[in-house]
Amino acid sequence: MALMQQLCRFHQSALCSTTELEASVIPEQGVRRVSMPGRAFSGIALPPQDQVRAIKSQQISASKERERMIQGIQTTLTARESDRRAALRRVMTGFGEDDIEMTLADSDGTASDAEAGMRVQLGPSTSFFAAGRELATRLTLNKRQSIAFLLICRQLDLMRQTDRGDVGQLCQFVGGEGGTGKSRIIEALVELFGGKGLSHRLLITATSGTAAAQINGITIHSACGFTKDQGAGGANMAKDLDGVRLPKLAGRFIHGQSRMDWQEKDVLVIDEVSMLGARTLHAVNEQLRRLRGSKEDFGGIPIVLFCGDFHQFRPVQERSILLPSAAISWDEDNSFRAEQRHQHDKAHALWKRFTTVVMLDEQMRAAGDPELQRLLKRIRRGVQDRTDLDLLNSRCYREGRRIPWETGITVVTPLNRNRWNLNMEASLAFRVQRRSTMRIFISEHRWKEELPTEEEAIMMLNQGDDSAIPVPAVFMFAAGMPVVVNHNTHQGLKLVNGASYTAVEVIIDKAYPGHRISAEITIHFGPPAGIILASATTRDLHFVGMPPGTILLTPMSVRIYRQRKRPWQRNEVSRKGLPCAAAFACTDYKVQGRTLERVALELRGTRTTKVDGMIVAAQCDPYSLYVQLSRCRTLDGIMLVSKVRERDLVGNRVPVDMTAAQARLEVLSERTVEEASRWLEGVDR
Q: What number is the average pLDDT over the span 74-100?
């Protein structure tokens, strides 16, 4: 708060005196270059501001092409193969926007995430089951992983051997705690279809951008033609009550080629299904029916695979598909009318069709720490007690211990206010550690009706990014710092909400020159023209004008509406800035699905109350409790920011009805595994 007030006062005083403001400007002289010793792109010139639009256009084209590849949208091969492949490479590396046709061979040779390794080409005459067994051995799948994979292979063979109409639809769920290798089954499916030259018949999706990026897929929202991103729909989209944006009636026409592409799909995968809300599932089902021209569930796609862990986070704005509407209190607000309850129950009925269930139980992430494994299992069962509380506090908490930012530790907190403050502290510490300069960018704010009071302006500068506002008010930049993206920008290039990067450098917007605060710190009264990012996912990217192995993120605008939680805000305001934030500290939602070597956890609730004049955090959400503690491989890698209170752990379990619903999955899993084991034994005889 103190730093924000200083920045705001500097801003106000500078505006009062044009002479003082101009005197503090630092001119950008000559060509700026990347300065990151040890990195391949260090020393390379930064693109000038007038190239930003062209670079952005290249990235949009490459992202769309990659998304088409993921969705298997391709046409028959034509003549002049070498010319067409050259055109593809130009698009994927940023050297053109040619019209091209996509094939499996192209995706193998040009995908940015391709890795060296052996690839088995499986002829079309090889049965899916035979190919699957070979893959299961090569990928070292364990027993339950193999069963989940081979059940799908068996179904694919049945479809090929008989009329598809005579083979029932397979609805399969693969569950299990975090770190049990659910994504390995998806990896095996991708290899299977790729080896047979049938990648266009498999569609890999997830409920979030980061989850989709981790499995080289796209979001189910994007695949179906609607989105949950704020403002992404524009004038041609109609917002449903649950936050999903559906095309208006005029935009729901299905093109013939699109229908043909969808009718080719044999397998649909949806990962992180715990965050798939019931009404979103209903919308997905209705859209798939339209896209495939079928009234059957999921448009008649022969195999639908759901993956996830229902002990991790639930849908943000909706209700879980695990429960019928009768089990949910619908009196919390007026948005859930009879129509919404009807949609919820139709989605729940779809979920009940998933009776082929395999729950993975071999822990891989925490395999080397039996104590952590035991603690996580007790939390999942809801039987954690004071001995577990004492274990955590004695092993992971030390009074007065500072957060060792220099070790690369990641702080996880459910409280945005704490995250903003911690990231500010860590950014300043990072600059000192690196002995580098820092640029502070204040996002552009435009008030709708009248200028704000000084108090409102200061409070707005203290309002950072959150789930509804992807742009922070202030972005502190130092070369080499970790950042996390807050908006699904280019799904095909994995520049998505929750993706982590190293910040390489910023492209200065000439409209917002830097003003010297000190020898090491410069302030800009507006966002940069762009920020250059690097990560493992950008390693093989090369866009014209950009340092190789990097990607560009540009500013976006977001409207901040008046809300009860911001009583000080009197007017709507538009904020323009970078949709990213420092990633020294992240929310619990942002780290779901990730494995972290060192973490500092804050096991607290998302709300605070005043007790005897002191701010006290609410009880830790039981889902957050499990997600946070399951991010690390060992207890020794976990540090507690504050001592765990008894109410945050002891007796803190998920709702009884959710526990019962998950128990049903365990029963179905035992039945599925037993039947599959007998079938496999028969095959081996």
A: 40
Q: How far is CA 509 from the centre of its chain?
A: 29
319-336 average pLDDT score = 75
For residues 463 and 566, give the distance between their C-alpha atoms in angstroms, rounded to a whole number.
Answer: 9
User: Mean pLDDT over all residues of the chain?
Assistant: 86
Q: What is the pLDDT of residue 185?
A: 97
Task: For tokens 């492949």, name the residue.
Answer: 85
Q: Where are the alpha helices (DSSP H) in 117-164?
A: 128-138, 143-161
On the question of pLDDT at 334 being above 60, the answer is no
Residue type, 591: V
Task: List helix spans (H) across 462-597.
Answer: 588-591
The pLDDT of residue 673 = 98
Residue-by-residue DSSP string for 64-79: HHHHHHHTT------S
Q: Which residue bears the tokens 């082929």?
A: 356
Spatial CA neighbour of 630 closest among 384, 363, 413: 363
The span from the CA of 395 to the CA of 385, in Å, is 16
Rounded mean pLDDT of 321-341?
75
Least confident segment among 452-456, 474-478, 626-630: 452-456
Q: How many helices (H) and strands (E) does the chain have?
A: 21, 27
- The residues, any chain, with a CB within 8 Å of residue 576's CB and separated by 6 or more, are 443, 444, 446, 471, 526, 527, 555, 556, 557, 558
Which residue bears the tokens 């991103």? 229
Burial of residue 499 (CB within 10 Å: 0-12, 13-18, 19+) is buried
How far apart are alpha carbons 644 and 601 in whole angstroms?
10
- For the chain, the structural domain boundaries read 125-363, 369-414+587-654
At residue 377, does pLDDT exceed 80? yes
- Cβ atoms of 299 and 289 within 8 Å: the answer is yes
What's the CATH code, domain 125-363? 3.40.50.300
CA distance 443 to 461: 9
d(CA 608, CA 616): 5
Please state whether 460 falls in left (phi above 0), alpha (psi between -120 and 50) or beta. Answer: alpha
**pLDDT value at residue 2:** 47
What 3-state class would DSSP assign to 105? helix
Strand partners, 246: 238
Structure tokens at 58: 């290249």
Helix (H, G, I), strand (E, B) or coil at 490: strand
Q: How far from chain centre, in Å, is Cα 517?
A: 36
pLDDT at 279: 92
At 115, the pLDDT band (50, 70, 90 cuts) reads very low
Chain center to CA of 588: 12
Contact 242, 318 (CB under 8 A): yes
**Backbone φ and ψ of 532, nearest 5°:** -95, 130
Helix (H, G, I), strand (E, B) or coil at 340: helix
Q: Are the C-beta atoms of 267 and 152 separated by less than 8 Å? A: yes
Task: Say what the pTM is.
Answer: 0.85
Note the helical H segments in 450-571.
454-461
Widest pairwise Cα distance in the chain = 90
Report the DSSP pairing between strands 267-271 and 573-577: unpaired
Residue 327 — very low, low, confident or very high, per pLDDT cuts 50/70/90?
A: confident
CA distance 536 to 113: 8
**Residue 517 and residue 495: Cα distance in Å, rounded?**
33
Q: How many CA atoms lie within 13 A of 52 on its CB side?
A: 17
Report the distance separating Cα 380 and Cα 384, nearest Å: 9
